[in-house]
């Protein structure tokens, strides 16, 4: 019977090489990885091997492997300063709980257990070179402590399982290792130096470069690991290269081998950076007959060649044969974005921040100029800062001249408005105009990416429009892909860079090209990428991608309307919706997001998209009655605010009502379909005097000129008979109820978002009422 190994962290840099060699030794491999720092692409070439199995799982949780297991190798862990600085808790958990789970598996199966520990257990050593008997000099509360102490704990736990439970364990202490499949942005010295040398940028050496490292090629390390695994040694055993060199010597060597003219610059040294690192490998030499064989120059040349060939990108998503990217050149494409409204401005800025060359086009020259000056034309947290920093790189610019934006663009994003018409169907006038302006300037094989929210079937309509516009140039080929946006106002930057999913619809080859643009997002390899974020890439046909956008928003709107329906019934039955909805949302099949009662939804998306879906269905003779109910319930919630005020105040004519919050949600200055404005109109029509405050809104529509905009919440509540909170701005939670009561004439506060603390109001003399309780 073939032997079988369970390898945690098997899709990582070292783990993937180890998996290859285990299979070469005739050992089946169950590779377990949660892809926080590993990547499925590292072991993609092993997937066809009959003895290989890849399981996505976190070994900090309980793991169960059916069938016999002969070896358990625990190699899972973030392993670079960048990783464990960003993921300290996960690092501690995989070193503690992950070690506990894998030791338990080895005990259950009677398997030989190999722990991948580290030279970091020696800390900044006071003994040189380091022998296995040295206890180390580790700072337990320093920036590296989560990694150092996790490994020290793992060694202690492994030793305890050996002595207490008789588990056949071994501990190897890995010293600095390098080679193919290292992540380009993992923060370790070898990838840093190689990337800097190949790009021609300055090679950054920490301190004066006199600190030393001992570098072992991954092939040598794997050989040492297998010899220890197949031995009866318990360890710990140092596995590393005793050849010591300074960081400055390493920088010069990498520069020379890469044929680079990069200059070397010195930067501040990281805290607790070890001054010396050199293994004493006497035990490995005498007990395992092992020592490294790969010369440092040959090994570094191997690693440099791998990075130069562009495999650093291939190991984190997609094939190595990337379109539009030459070996060794930066991952970069030329992009034009048509329309610089909310979606267009965010898309332009974020794509350029990922390293692409982006030109945003807008017929409004004033807006293009405003953006070129680093001024965001609307309120969106984080956008002004990202806009300015990205403009400074030279990769981002805006223009009102299509001749400047389009002729060299490989990708053209359509990001124009599609407002609702009188019957609810989208008005495609702006999109039609954009297509007409794009057509004369398209380059051959350009991909038209439609991010505008359009009716199902618009991809074909876009293609037909372009074909008509290009009647005089039938030989010019182009491609159409649907890429619906899921940006939430107030968190658009995060939504673009750290999304749940990216949806692309179209022909497979066209979708693959657009996916390349998003590769840094999909694999989180850009500066600031989050290893724990793994966005899903969903590829569909054109019509399905267009439908996904509408269906997603319709579902979220329906979820809110459902919550409000339950709130109405709770008020009738004497139940408390604040207790009911969280209990419903605790079911993982439901989830708590958007399960909130109050004055209902608003904004530019939900109402427009639900109306468009209803209108499109009616074109085909079908009326979606549930979606119509979603809209009707939402409208009723706004009217219910007025009814609550009428019930409590009886007559609204001549009453003073203060409204807190005017935007449809916090974090934006968008007033489109805001519930507060509808409520204000109803109050004015009933003869009430309305004052209002919003943290960002300074101007209201002309039809609301009778509403007095005040400088703060207390001014808005001055002499008010009642106050209505319609937007859940965080600062409204900080309102002093006693202070509010002092300026009000009445004592009624209507919480239109069910987000204020009832306890804070109970002693102030104010009566707080909400929705569903």
Automatic annotation (TrEMBL):
Residues 658-758 form the UDP-glucose/GDP-mannose dehydrogenase C-terminal domain. One of its GO terms (molecular function) is oxidoreductase activity, acting on the CH-OH group of donors, NAD or NADP as acceptor. It is found in: Golgi apparatus membrane; Golgi apparatus, Golgi stack membrane. It catalyses: UDP-alpha-D-glucose + 2 NAD(+) + H2O = UDP-alpha-D-glucuronate + 2 NADH + 3 H(+). This is UDP-glucose 6-dehydrogenase. Pathway: Nucleotide-sugar biosynthesis; UDP-alpha-D-glucuronate biosynthesis; UDP-alpha-D-glucuronate from UDP-alpha-D-glucose: step 1/1. It comes from Mycobacterium aquaticum. Keywords: Decarboxylase, Glycoprotein, Golgi apparatus, Lyase, Membrane, NAD, Oxidoreductase, Signal-anchor, Transmembrane, Transmembrane helix.
């Amino acid at each position: 019977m073939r032997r079988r190994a369970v390898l945690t962290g098997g899709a990582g840099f070292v783990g993937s090489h180890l998996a290859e060699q285990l299979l070469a030794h005739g050992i089946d491999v169950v590779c377990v990885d949660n892809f926080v720092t590993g990547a499925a692409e590292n072991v993609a070439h092993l997937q066809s091997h009959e003895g290989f199995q890849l399981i996505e799982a976190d070994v900090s949780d309980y793991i169960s492997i059916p069938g016999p297991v002969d070896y358990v190798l625990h190699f899972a862990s973030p392993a670079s300063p960048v990783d464990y600085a960003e993921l300290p808790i996960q690092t501690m958990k995989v070193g503690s709980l992950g070690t506990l789970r894998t030791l338990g598996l080895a005990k259950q199966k009677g398997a030989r257990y190999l722990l991948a520990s580290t030279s970091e257990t020696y800390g900044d050593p006071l003994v040189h070179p380091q022998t296995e008997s040295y206890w180390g000099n580790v700072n337990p509360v320093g920036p590296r402590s989560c990694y150092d102490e996790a490994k020290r704990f793992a060694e202690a736990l492994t030793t305890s399982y050996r002595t207490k439970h008789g588990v056949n364990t071994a501990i190897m202490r890995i010293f600095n290792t390098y080679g193919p499949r290292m992540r380009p942005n993992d923060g370790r010295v070898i990838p840093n130096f190689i990337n800097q040398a190949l790009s021609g940028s300055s090679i950054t050496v920490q301190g004066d470069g006199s600190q030393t490292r001992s570098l072992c090629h991954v092939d040598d390390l794997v050989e040492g690991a297998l010899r220890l695994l197949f031995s009866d040694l318990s360890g710990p055993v140092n596995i590393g290269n005793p050849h010591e060199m300074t960081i400055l010597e390493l920088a010069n060597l990498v520069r020379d081998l890469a044929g680079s003219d990069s200059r070397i610059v010195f930067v501040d040294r990281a805290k607790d950076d070890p001054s010396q690192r050199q293994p004493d490998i006497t035990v490995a030499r005498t007990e395992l007959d092992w020592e490294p064989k790969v010369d440092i120059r040959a090994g570094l040349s191997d690693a440099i060649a791998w990075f130069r060939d562009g495999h650093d990108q291939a190991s984190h998503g997609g094939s190595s044969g990337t379109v539009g990217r030459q070996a060794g050149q930066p991952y970069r494409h030329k992009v034009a974005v048509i329309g610089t409204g909310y979606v267009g401005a965010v898309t332009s800025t974020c794509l350029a921040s990922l390293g692409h060359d982006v030109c945003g086009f807008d017929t409004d020259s004033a807006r293009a100029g405003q953006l070129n000056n680093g001024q965001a034309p609307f309120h969106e947290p984080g956008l002004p800062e990202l806009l300015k920093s990205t403009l400074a790189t030279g990769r981002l610019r805006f223009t009102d001249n299509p001749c400047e934006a389009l002729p060299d663009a490989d990708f053209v994003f359509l990001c124009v408005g599609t407002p609702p018409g009188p019957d609810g169907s989208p008005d495609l006038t702006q999109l039609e105009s954009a297509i007409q302006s794009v057509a004369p300037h398209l380059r051959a094989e350009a991909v038209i990416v439609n991010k505008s929210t359009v009716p199902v079937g618009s991809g074909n309509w876009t293609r037909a429009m372009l074909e008509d516009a290009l009647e005089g140039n039938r030989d010019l080929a182009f491609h159409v892909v649907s890429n619906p946006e899921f940006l939430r106002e107030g968190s658009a930057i995060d939504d673009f860079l750290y999304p749940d999913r990216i949806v692309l619809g179209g022909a497979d080859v066209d979708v693959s090209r657009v996916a390349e643009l998003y590769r840094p997002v999909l694999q989180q390899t850009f500066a600031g990428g989050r290893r724990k974020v793994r966005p899903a890439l969903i590829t569909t046909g054109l019509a399905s991608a267009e439908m996904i956008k509408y269906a997603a928003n319709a579902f979220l709107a329906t979820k809110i309307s459902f919550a409000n329906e339950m709130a109405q019934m709770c008020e009738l039955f004497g139940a408390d919706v604040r207790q009911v909805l969280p209990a419903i949302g605790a079911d993982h099949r439901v989830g708590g997001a958007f399960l909130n009662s109050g004055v209902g939804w608003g904004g530019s998306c939900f109402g427009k998209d639900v109306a468009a879906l209803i209108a499109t269905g009616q074109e085909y003779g079908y009326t979606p009655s549930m979606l119509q109910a979603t809209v009707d319930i939402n409208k009723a919630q706004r009217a219910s605010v007025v009814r609550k005020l009428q019930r409590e105040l009886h007559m609204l004519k001549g009453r003073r009502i203060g409204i807190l919050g005017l935007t449809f949600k916090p974090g934006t200055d968008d007033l489109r379909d805001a519930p507060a404005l509808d409520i204000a109109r109803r109050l004015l029509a009933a003869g009430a005097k309305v004052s209002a405050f919003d943290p960002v809104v300074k101007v209201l529509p002309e039809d609301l000129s009778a509403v007095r905009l005040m400088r703060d919440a207390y001014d808005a509540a001055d002499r008010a008979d009642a106050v209505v909170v319609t937007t859940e701005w965080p600062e409204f939670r900080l309102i002093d109820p006693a202070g509010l009561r002092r300026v009000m004439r009445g004592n009624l506060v209507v919480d239109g978002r069910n987000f204020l603390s009832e306890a804070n109001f109970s002693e102030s003399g104010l009566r707080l009422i909400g929705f569903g309780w």
